[in-house]
Specification:
Strand order of the largest sheet: 2-1-5-4-3
Number of strands: 5
Order of helices and strands: HHHHHHHHHHHHHHHHHEEHEEE
Distance between the termini: 49 Å
Helix content: 55-70%
Strand content: 5-15%
Number of helices: 18
Oligomer: single chain
Structural class: alpha+beta
Length: 397
Amino acid sequence: MKPHLTGSRIRERRVDRGLKQAALAKLCGISPSYLNLIEHNRRRIGGKLLLRIASELEVEPQALSEGADHALLDGLRGAAERAALVEDEAQRVEEFAGRFPGWAAMTAEQSARIEKLERTVAELNDRIVHDPALSGALHDVLSMVTSIRSTASILAQDDVEPDWQARFLRNIFEDSRRLSDAAGELVGWLEAEEGTAVSDRAPQDELEDWLTARDWHVAELERALAPSPEDLLADDPGFTSDVSRATAAAFLQRYRADAERIPLARLREAVDAVGPDPLALAERFDTSVPRAFRRLATLPLSWGAGLIGFAQCDASGAFTLRKSIPGYSIPRFGSAAPDLPIYEALARPLIPVRATVEAGERFVALAVSAPVRAAAFGEAPLVECFLLILPDPSQVE
């Protein structure tokens, strides 16, 4: 028996028969106040009392006891919360479901569908704004268009010598071919092939899933004769586009360079000696602090790497790669976790930053940013930030 709506059904049948609450209570041998609690679904009812009330109302007991299930009520409560209904209205979901079960089911279903669509739109917007693959494709298209336009404006002049005309025409041909490739890549990102669904997953999401399945440790790249990233990713069904595969290959290329600079066997000795301290490891191996961050994030799980969270983000603070750990889930945007020292690190490249964060448990967040490549004269450097999240040593027994 589902008691949540029985009281509402009793009240509805009583009103339909024109019975006063006190009259029905007297017929059933209970007090009016107790019947009032039952009709407002504040007391469970069953057994002989349910049979007695059903008899007085001249209905089958099942007509009173069968009501909406928990899922429908939860759906209605969620819809009420999202619609910001006033409290008095929100508290009447059981009555609504009991009196109009069909309308209630439709309302809950439509509310859930709207929420799902809103979430999909937000995810796609997030991807459009922050997806590095899309940004790269747009940049390539604009660069090729600018180059072709510039060359064409030169050819439009009347005094261009034949030899130079041939060179410019060849440049236009090469640029137009690259433009075609970049445009095709951009269209492939925005539209799926006919008969296939459009994926709402960004390339970094597919890379994160691939790394999570390996516990973020790629043993093949730790060997002296490591395969190329392209060979390692060949025919892997986890990557659904060329952009995703290229994103993963770039990560693995950096992984292999890090492994060559800090070999796994020597890293084990160093971690045993100094612990997961990226500054000490960088000094010990005479390498950069960001590289030490990345190597700690990809330690074998048996070395305790499951307790080391990692993320990297672009200059806007949007994470381009995340490795969460038990007790701390890293959001997509740095703005969603203001206690993480991301923006402080981005504002001071190459200067390590430390902060304590609370998420039920206490963690230590270490961050450092570094230029992606050397800056040109008169231009600000393009930087990316790396983050480690470790259990607070003072909390570890």
